[in-house]
TrEMBL record:
Protein's recorded name: Deaminase
Domain of life: Bacteria
Source organism of this protein record: Micromonospora arida
GO BP term (any one): riboflavin biosynthetic process
GO molecular function, one term: 5-amino-6-(5-phosphoribosylamino)uracil reductase activity
The Bacterial bifunctional deaminase-reductase C-terminal domain, residue ranges: 93-183
SUPFAM superfamilies: Dihydrofolate reductase-like (SSF53597)
């Protein structure tokens, strides 16, 4: 099977925003309350940060598990890695995720300001100032035959869509409006010239949008 570039479990609001305005260290999603966007996934049995037994085992759980299936590398933008802009003031900041990030693969962070690679547990972060196609080629090599996950944020996903590099997407649409921030789309119909689309509502209130290439 060919290696795929997959967007998995990426959350947007009903009006198409993936994050709010005014990101900071204290507020990774800016003015937006992340709870309505992510609570569906936190309620599942397979949620990566679950510490107690229980959780749902329906559609939401299936898609949560699928996000990790056959992933060998990750690509993300700098704004997903952290809130800093411009040259790195120091190298002490090592991401939002603590000493054991949830990726467990090589992660390629796209930035105009590179810094040395480093590892936390079994995740190694590499910082690259390259085109989407070059980043994908390196990530596929590092993935050793498995798929590559495109983790976001919004600007990075749009950049890879514009380069026509994305093979599949799962976008979880929450029943909340953010009004401002970083917008993935005005309507998912914008992508129908290149992708098939199925819309699957969940009892949690989330609508799961599944895209795959035509």
């Amino acid at each position: 099977m060919p290696q795929l570039l997959r967007v998995q479990c990426f959350n947007v609001s009903r009006d198409g925003f993936g994050t709010g305005e005014g990101q900071s260290l204290e507020r990774p999603f800016g003015h937006a309350d992340p709870t309505p966007l992510f609570s569906w996934r936190a309620a599942t049995a397979s949620f990566v940060y679950r510490t107690e037994p229980g959780g749902t085992r329906g559609l939401d759980d299936y898609l949560t598990r699928d996000a990790e299936c056959n992933i060998g590398a990750e690509i993300m933008g700098r704004n997903k890695f952290g809130p800093q802009r411009g040259p790195w003031e120091n190298h002490d900041w090592q991401g939002w995720w603590g000493d054991n990030p949830p990726f467990h693969t090589p992660v390629f962070v796209l930035t105009h300001h590179v810094r040395p690679s480093f590892s936390l547990s079994d995740t190694t972060f590499h910082f690259r100032d390259v085109s989407p196609a070059e980043a994908l080629a390196e990530a596929k090599q590092a993935a050793d035959g498995r798929d590559v996950r495109l983790g976001g944020g919004v600007a990075t996903i749009r950049e890879f869509l514009e380069a026509d590099l994305v093979d599949t997407m799962h976008i979880a649409v929450a029943p909340v409006d953010l009004d401002r921030g970083e917008r993935l789309w005005d309507s998912p119909d914008e992508l129908l010239d290149r992708f098939h689309l199925e819309s699957v509502p969940s009892p949690s209130g989330i609508t799961h949008l599944l895209f795959w290439r035509r």
